[in-house]
Amino acid sequence: MEDAIPSSKMHGLLVFSIILTIAVLARVQAAPVQIPDLSRCQLSSASAPRGPPLTLYFNCCLPIPKQPMVDFSFHTYTPTVRRVRRPAHTANAEYIAKINKAYQLMRALPDTDGRSFKAQADIHCSFCNGGYPQKGFQGDIPLQVHFSWLFLPWHRWYLYFHERILGSLIGDPSFALVYWNWDDQKTGGNQVPEMFTPANTAIYEEKRNKNIQPPVIVPLAASTPLNDSNSVKIDKNLNNMYQSVVTASTATLFMGGIVRAGDDLSNASVVNAPLGGGIENGVHNAIHFYVGDSTTQLSQDMGNFATASRDPIFYAHHSNVDRLWEVWRYNLPGGERFDHNDPDFLNAQFVFYDERGRMVRVLAKDALDSKKLGVYYQKGESDDLWINYNPPAFTSVSAVAEALASGVPYIGAAPLNGTINIGTKFSAIVKRPTEKKPSNSVEVLTIQGLETVRDEFVALLAFVNLPDAGPSTPTHTAEYLGTFNIIAATGRTKKLMTNVKYEIGDNLRRIGIQDEDEVVITLVATKSYPALTFQGFDIDYEDK
Ligand code: C2O
């Protein structure tokens, strides 16, 4: 009979292998997102869960150029001239002719050319609707560049190369995109820019919402009705900008949260749920929602990620998102703000086509300074309106007693609450942290583990101190924390679990309830959903 391994040794072996497994897992998790294996493309899809069953399949597979892939370096792509992006509503006839010419030439390129309009649009579709599984992981974990810290750098790179291609097609190295200045509530930026509206031009797209032709003011929250009066819409727009850019002073609040290689957004848990930033969740998504044509399947083009960038207005929309990233970093009261500096953020890899049709591998960290890429923004003329917006307080005393009397429950942090159904509305009393606020931190409400179907547009409103809030409660006030919108997307990612965060300290101070131990939080769903659930509320301090 063979000698049995003594049990103490066996035990040691077991412990060792557990430690090894944990170490390996930790290593796998702590890695930046990589570019996928481009030969493993699959059909992207988007489906509508209600009404007649419908799934649209999109072939967004990217053409693979003959030339080998290159790595981006500032040396190879040294900017020779400045590209200055200006507000779309101020573009003159000469510029409009120029950009139309550029898109005409881009549209004329064969689909097999990475610089073609089709391939350019497919870059967005394939990295947002599951065109490529992540490399190096078992199973089908789609690469997704929304809902996280990847959102801003990925889209900055996307515009950078798109703009270079347009410029090279017309032989103008200073060619710059325009930005759709939708946050501008003063000089006319808040409408669909006229330059995009004449039919049969290269920058026109048929599948757009016919109800938001200029001079209709475009709401910056999908919960803001189109038929609000202009002055009401303007105040709501200013507050949406204020709440999602100005008071969102941490990288996580503004840019979004962590995503590492192998993270599966459709299969998240409360702890590692993805997190879109304020700029993405609110104002950015609202523009997609309002520009898409809701009479088409899945609100094409802008209303879903698979088709959004088939509309040239997409690039003007994202130029403004990109500009606001600059404003957020450098031009807000309180001094410079800081991007994420986690190595898995900095070293996240993406791939695009350059103006020679080559594939270029880039890193998130090389996009952090837009001037280094040669891209400048003409200063927005009315940023100060939302930067200095003073949301008026609707209430002045704590609503906790009133809420308690009407049976509103206490809800704490996950996982103690189980799964809570929001229905059309849900109110709870939430405890604030007992310790004093550390300096250089902000007070943040987290809606934990918000889960939604992924293929339907979602608009959820959050209020503080308003237990009676409903879908028509005004959102220009200090009680409004923000809207959470999700753009419909892939059918291969059936649901999405996410955490949603709002800075809340500024709101409490404005109302005058900053010394209370607990507050009432109310969530309101403004559209009807099959199921919208979450796991808990948490209020805590987060470092700037
Ligand atoms: Cu990639 Cu505005 O979305």
TrEMBL record:
GO molecular function: catechol oxidase activity; metal ion binding
Highest taxon of source: Eukaryota
Cofactor(s) recorded in Swiss-Prot or TrEMBL: Cu(2+)
Domain Tyrosinase copper-binding, chain residue ranges per copy: 146-163, 311-322
Keywords recorded for this protein, A-Z: Copper, Disulfide bond, Metal-binding, Oxidoreductase, Signal, Thioether bond
Signal sequence, renumbered to the chain: 1-30
Protein family according to the UniProt entry: Belongs to the tyrosinase family.
Protein name as catalogued: Tyrosinase copper-binding domain-containing protein
